[in-house]
Amino acid sequence: MELKDKKIGFAVTGSFCTLSRTLETLRTLKSTGAQITPVLSENVATLDTRFYKARDFIKDVTDICEVAPIMSITDAEPIGPKKLFDLLIVAPCTGNTLAKITYGITDTPVTMAVKAHMRNARPLLIAVSTNDGLAGSAKNIGQLMNYKNVFFVPFTQDDPIKKATSLVAEFEKLTECAALALDKVQMQPVLIK
Length: 193
Known about the structure:
alpha/beta, 7-stranded mixed beta sheet, globular, 8 helices
């Protein structure tokens, strides 16, 4: 499926070490002609880290998408009733956000966006980035893989020696995965060695 003119929500959570990769991915996705609305978790929108200053990240995202990000629960709620997105992407998706999505907890702009979007039986694409993907978050990944309309960007262990349980999505595959998710197809294989 072509992404041109598709309405895509792009939700970003606090895997701060992947924010630069996230921006590269966002630029690639924008180059397809998709209409992208960013959604930022409160941590991404407010915390300065060694990887990015919050205001700089907000500016970069706004410049790429040409629209200000959704940064509050109340601003995310209309996503469902107004059917704002054809596809919602969560990239990066932390272990914390995975758990909240799995158990229906809606206490952040991103989890509210997911809840609101999913009520319309439209696809959700998750790009995992978590240090406990093969530990505490493994069960949540497994559960979400069984949910209807939930798709994953293939992921791999980013450092199997030093961080044996850490998983990170293959961000360079996200645009292709977005097109597949719109057709309700999961890219295979999901786990890359």
